[in-house]
Amino acid sequence: MRAARCEEYGGPEQVVVREVPAPEVTPGHVLVDVAAAAVNFPDLLFIADRYQVSVGLPFTPGSEFSGTVAAVGEGVVGFAPGDRVHGSVVTGAMAEQVLAPARSIAPVPAGLSMVEAAAFRVTYLTAYHALVTAGAVEPGQWVVVLGAAGGVGTACVDVATRLGARVIAAASSPERLQVATKLGAEAGIDYVAEDLKTRIKEITGGAGADLVVDPVGDRWAEPALRAIRWGGRFVTIGFAGGEIPRIPLNLVLLKNVTVRGLELRTWVERLPEENARAREGLAQLVADGMRPLVSEVHELDDVATALRRVAERIPTAKVVISIGAEEKQ
Ligand SMILES: NC(=O)c1ccc[n+]([C@@H]2O[C@H](COP(=O)([O-])OP(=O)(O)OC[C@H]3O[C@@H](n4cnc5c(N)ncnc54)[C@H](OP(=O)(O)O)[C@@H]3O)[C@@H](O)[C@H]2O)c1
User: Fold this and answer.
1) Which of 76, 184, 290, 326 is the most buried (most CB within 10 A)?
2) What is the pLDDT, as a whole number, of residue 275?
3) 194 lines ligand 1 (CB under 6 A)
4) Do residues 246 and 154 both lie within one domain?
């Protein structure tokens, strides 16, 4: 089969397309003919060997995919060849076939194309858990989304708006904020040109935010935390900005803020009930018309370009790689 391969750690240009042996189905796993794979920021960290866990060379990047079940391993129930599924793995999705643990795949929600389904699983599940499971968001509450024009960011704006929250989007330019506004954000903050804490306070009429969802970290986490109301919540998802911030704990103490971490990979493994609830919640939102925003679709041969676009902060919303000929609605 054809697969993207990282043969040397480095930037997107290190990723090439090669002919490699297809994976064999193993107990508890499902072999999927991949229709599409999405690009996520952690893919860049894996190929640079800067992720929390290291992946040995050579490997196939890609954590989020959609496709059709080709074979099911011993002990797998609920899936059969031909089923339309989407799922997540640590690496391996940017290939014509991927082997995934059965618990990491799910039927494609009715109404989603394969391209949309590939852009949905990691991003929207992360967003839903950040907002609902960890963030306990309520209708009418002020939710600040940092990196609001990115993959997770747009999903957070989309889901939060649909759950009735009042969203303040923060991104690095007015153009990038437009995508969040289209998704229903009530206000936008250009966090390069404006003071994040001051603007959040102004927009919320001095009250402060109820919830901050942070996939960016770096120099933006602390001002956002300082703009939370007494008893508010801060959910940390990632550090796309580069630096892992060091937050003074007195800020947490004085305002009785709850800080929650969320790592989807371990949540999927350890919290089956919460994941089932999240999937149900998302399926309802899809039934009500929610669709993930895909801003670019590339062919597998252009995988390095797709990765470079994300590394350069160019896309608004998700970048998807179209792989299988089966369906590209
Ligand atoms: N915890 C989890 O389970 C989980 C799951 C998925 C993703 N993540 C993490 O969430 C973060 C976002 O992932 P994503 O896939 O949504 O990525 P993405 O689409 O590339 O979005 C990241 C956003 O961060 C902002 N950003 C600020 N400084 C940046 C920098 N120096 N380089 C690149 N982007 C920068 C960019 O927006 P502006 O230019 O507008 O600032 C960009 O839109 C990543 O840290 C990723 O590792 C975590």
Assistant:
1) 290
2) 92
3) no
4) yes
Name residue, tokens 């986490």. Answer: 221
Q: Is residue 185 part of a domain?
A: yes
- 62: Cβ–Cβ under 8 A, 6 or more apart, which residues? 4, 37, 38, 39, 43, 89, 91, 92, 93, 94, 95, 98, 321
186/242 same-domain check: yes
Alpha-carbon distance 148 to 213, whole Å?
A: 10
Residue range 150-195, pLDDT digits in tens = 999 999 999 999 999 999 999 999 999 999 999 999 999 999 999 9
- Once rounded to an integer, what is the mean pLDDT over residues 75-97? 97
237, 309, 316: which to mutate for ligand 1, most atoms within 8 A of CB? 237
Same domain, 261 and 179: yes
Instruction: Specify the CATH number for the domain of residue 241.
Output: 3.40.50.720
- For the Cβ of 176 lying below 6 angstroms from any atom of ligand 1, the answer is yes
For ligand 1, is residue 12 a contact (CB within 6 Å)? no
165 and 182 fall within a common domain: yes
Cα 238 to averaged position of ligand 1 atoms, centre (Å): 7
Cis peptide before 58 (omega within 30 of 0): yes
240 Cα: distance to centroid of ligand 1 (angstroms): 4
Q: Give the residue carrying structure tokens 């956002």.
A: 224
Q: How far apart are CA 196 and CA 192, in angstroms?
A: 9
Ranking 25-29, 57-61, 269-273 by mean pLDDT, the lowest is 269-273
- What mean pLDDT is predicted for residues 231-238? 98
CATH of residue 83: 3.90.180.10
Q: Is 262 in the pocket of ligand 1 (CB under 6 A)?
A: yes
Residues 34, 9 within the same domain: yes
pTM (predicted TM-score) = 0.93
Q: Is there an atom of ligand 1 within 6 Å of 59 CB?
A: no
